[in-house]
Amino acid sequence: MIEIRHLSKTFKLAKGDIHALSDINLTINDGEIFGIIGLSGAGKSTLVRCINYLETPTEGEVIFNGTNLGTLTPAELRQTRKKISMIFQNFNLFAQRTALKNVRFPLEIIGTDKAEATKKARELLELVGLSDRENSYP
Ligand SMILES: Nc1ncnc2c1ncn2[C@@H]1O[C@H](COP(=O)(O)OP(=O)(O)O)[C@@H](O)[C@H]1O
Ligand SMILES: [Mg+2]
Question: For labelling alongside 122, which of 8, 25, 89, 115 has CA 20 to 30 A away?
Fold first, then answer.
């Protein structure tokens, strides 16, 4: 489902280049669970950001469900990203929104029907055992 081929990422800074990722090759099949483990600064976050092209690889390819993400237009990439979920380490929650409304927020901004968005958000809260907290604030 996710194929990473010869992926490298170099950050070019005034004081020199940082080779964050070098020739990563990885195949993750549908339903597989992978952990990426390494010391602080090893490149874990950069790799995860490359998987959905929030970060553009310097070299190599990311193939998601058979599509090479590097070949997509920005609009196509935005559509494809809707199928790739991501939870950031430093998440930002809206203090004035309930748990349900926080989870529903991305669906609201892309114009999903409100009932459908609420249903999806409830399923996700259920998945992580937070159903009883849907009306709680962060
Ligand atoms: N936007 C950036 N600009 C320059 N250097 C970066 C950037 N993001 C990460 N790095 C560098 O790339 C390396 C890998 O960082 P990162 O992916 O955050 O590691 P980890 O998540 O494993 O702690 C580090 O040396 C970090 O300083
Ligand atoms: Mg990190």
Answer: 89
